[in-house]
Amino acid sequence: MNHFLDIHKTDKDQLRLIIDSAKAMKTARDGQPKAATDHDLPLKDRMVALIFEKPSTRTRTSFDVGVRQMGGQTMVLSGSDMQLGHGETIADTARVMSRYVDMIMIRTFDESVLEEMAEYATVPVINGLTDRTHPCQIMADVLTYEEHRGPIAGKKVVWCGDGNNVCASFLHAAGQFGFDLTFTGPVQLDPEMEFVGFARNQGVAVTIERDPTKAVEGADLVVTDTWISMHDAQSARERRHNMLRPYQVNARLMERAKPDALFMHCLPAHREEEVTSEVMDGPNSVIWDEAENRLHAQKAIMRWCLGA
Ligand code: CP
Ligand code: NVA
Fewer CB within 10 Å: C terminus or N terminus of the chain? Predict the structure, then answer.
């Protein structure tokens, strides 16, 4: 049994196996109706709980559809409707849920909730986003980059804007998959040094460059995310917008990257804020493939967790 808690907590060779498995599963069901089951049904007779303490469109839908395609069943639970949201401990919830279901995916606020769930669950636990990281997203992003441009190792990825949870998982992936990452954003929103340090310790270059036009020079991939994450206080909205506006990804900025540079965004996007519609809907953007690949990457993650 494997938990999938973070990219830096999973061995490099295992991450590569997951990406390869996702590619193979995607190819195998090319052109099939969405509800058609896969040729193999590795999750047959398995029940998967999907717990959400924050909103979700992609994570919720892609996990649910992915389990069904592999022959399993899901229950989608809202944290606020569970006793979890009314004082029952995470540990007790984990012990009880493990008696009913074969795997738990949880989207939560504090990382400690995920960690406690994994410690006390006797079934695999998957991180569906915390305030600090979003590993399933970045597995989909690596898959997306590689299906468009080949191996991501040795490439230059530029993160523009807030050094948030998605940026953190990109830094983990830089270390594990061997690509360089340049962060460009305001100093107040730098990624935590722990994430930067992890990537650097794996031997890849992590650069902090305040000037976005310099940062994107020679980029193979430009990535951004919302200026206000679900865990950020709305009261900080104006201040964050003012700090982040110079880091908007627009056509002028993309022109400084390599001509064939890709653009990614985990979505949901706020058009004309962190990115213009011109870039989102432009020729370098692979955001819809990226969203689709959540499905394929997570199917591979779930199989890996269950050894199925
Ligand atoms: N990218 C992502 O995780 O989207 P949702 O919040 O819609 O799940
Ligand atoms: N950084 C965003 C990602 C949403 C998928 C958030 O945490 O709200």
Answer: N
